[in-house]
Amino acid sequence: MGLFAGLTGWHLLAIALVILVLFGATKLPVFAKGLGQSIKIFRKEVTEVQDDMAKDRAQRSDEHLDRETVTTPDPQTRRASEDR
Predict the structure, then answer these.
(1) HEC-encoded secondary structure of the chain
(2) In angstroms, rounded to a whole number, what is the distance separating the alpha carbons of residues 22 and 15?
(3) pLDDT tens digit string along 14-71?
(4) Cβ burial 35-45 (10 Å sphere, 16+ → b, else e)
(5) Angle between helical axes of 9-23 and 28-67 (0-180°, round to 10)
(6) Which of 6, 26, 25, 5 is nearest to 16 (CA)?
(7) Residues in Cβ contact with 81 at an 8 Å cutoff, skipping those fewer than 6 apart
(8) Would you list the domain boundaries of the chain?
(9) Contact assessment for residue 20 and residue 28, using Cβ atoms and an 8 Å cutoff
(10) Where in this protein does the record put region Disordered (predicted)?
């Protein structure tokens, strides 16, 4: 079970009222704006990290394919070498 699994709507309402009393109605918009900006920055950073990881995987995949160049002999060349 998660940390907030037992919370109901009434619990969340009580928590919101406590926050309102502690910080006051005038400071809540400032906190909400700061929280929103922080979430936006966090999401941007997560996206950048995921993009970097995808580029690294693609680059490693390309390097791996470059090292695994497989050559198949020409059928005529193979027959000539088998005849010897």
Answers:
(1) CCCCCCCCHHHHHHHHHHHHHHHCCCCHHHHHHHHHHHHHHHHHHHHHHHHHHHHHHHHHHHHHHHHCCCCCCCHHHHHHHHHC
(2) 11
(3) 988 898 888 888 888 888 899 999 999 999 999 999 999 999 998 888 777 666 655 6
(4) eeeeeeeeeee
(5) 120
(6) 25
(7) 73
(8) 25-66
(9) yes
(10) 50-84
